[in-house]
Design brief:
With 282 residues, the protein is of the alpha/beta class. It has one domain: NAD(P)-binding Rossmann-like Domain (Rossmann fold), CATH 3.40.50.720. The protein has 11 helices and 7 strands. The chain has a 7-stranded parallel sheet, with helices on both faces.
Length: 282
């Protein structure tokens, strides 16, 4: 597995929703390898039940060895996304990497799911992914070996997942389809402006605040892997040639196994980790 200290030196990453959890872990993984990190998130003030703000996240990025910039904003709002992109270019000279991390989840049965929650998932998951990627595209196309990683699953048509929470499923699969579509649209340019579009999804539950706050959170956290596994997998993808990752939908454990990591116990989860949504357990 690649671990060169400067493997992402002077590369600029924009992460949506990166004030905590998986988004922050990926930001820190990149910062340890010298990246500049721009975090777009709404959390300017501490939340009573959730750790950290976009400002503490930037402090963590800089402590890890990268350069950080906080942009307080909502990935659903065009003007906020434009502000984040403009800030990245003004402070760091361009954009090389986008991580579409921001996401909302509601898994109630259809008859109990409110239209408000449905709209929230579509607006953050699909619209937010579209807005950030579209706005960054001119700068990504000017970059050497640009990447866009979207935190979305492989398209699994198992009826179990289709029927478990159809509205959430369509919002996440929508993110995946956008990535695959962009891979075909922008990933094979012959003028040197090709971009590597890929998706990354955890094999198991990840120990985030979202899991901790569930009704069975204590048990689930014990069966969840740490956010480090997603960070390590993302960094491995980002330090490959963009053409290699273009159009791929990765599972974190598979990325690391292919990179030579033979023991995933370092990431926790115990002997029987909880398989994640959209992943069929062998």
């Amino acid at each position: 597995m690649k671990n060169e200290r400067d493997s992402l030196a002077d590369r600029t990453m924009v992460v949506s929703g990166g004030s905590r959890g998986i988004g922050l872990a990926i930001a820190l993984g990149a910062a340890k390898r010298g990246a500049n990190v721009v975090l777009l998130a709404k959390t300017s003030e501490p939340h009573p039940r959730l750790p950290g703000t976009v400002h503490t996240a930037v402090a963590d990025v800089e402590a890890a060895g990268g350069k950080g910039l906080a942009v307080v904003g909502d990935v659903r709002r065009e003007e906020d996304v434009q502000r984040a992109v403009d800030a990245a270019v003004a402070h760091f000279g361009g954009i090389d990497i986008v991580v579409n991390n921001a996401s909302a989840i509601s898994t109630e049965p259809t008859e109990h799911l409110s239209a408000k929650k449905f709209d929230l998932m579509m607006d953050i998951n699909v619209r937010g992914t579209f807005l950030l990627t579209k706005t960054a595209l001119p700068h990504l196309r000017a970059s050497r070996d640009a990447h866009v990683i979207t935190l979305a699953p492989p398209l699994n048509m198992n009826p179990h997942w289709l029927g478990a929470h159809p509205s959430y499923t369509v919002s996440k699969y929508g993110m995946t389809l956008l990535s695959l579509g962009w891979a075909a649209e922008y990933g094979s340019a012959e003028d040197g402006t090709a971009i590597g579009f890929s998706c990354l999804w955890p094999q198991t539950y990840i120990a985030t605040s979202a899991v901790t706050n569930l009704a069975e959170g204590d048990d689930l956290v014990q069966r969840s892997r740490s956010t480090d596994i997603m960070a390590d997998a993302a960094v491995d993808i980002l330090t490959r040639p963009a053409a290699e990752s273009n159009g791929q939908t990765y599972i974190d454990a598979d990325v690391l196994t292919a990179a030579g990591v033979t023991d995933l116990s370092r990431y926790g989860g115990g002997d029987d980790p909880m398989w994640d949504i959209f992943v069929d357990k062998p």
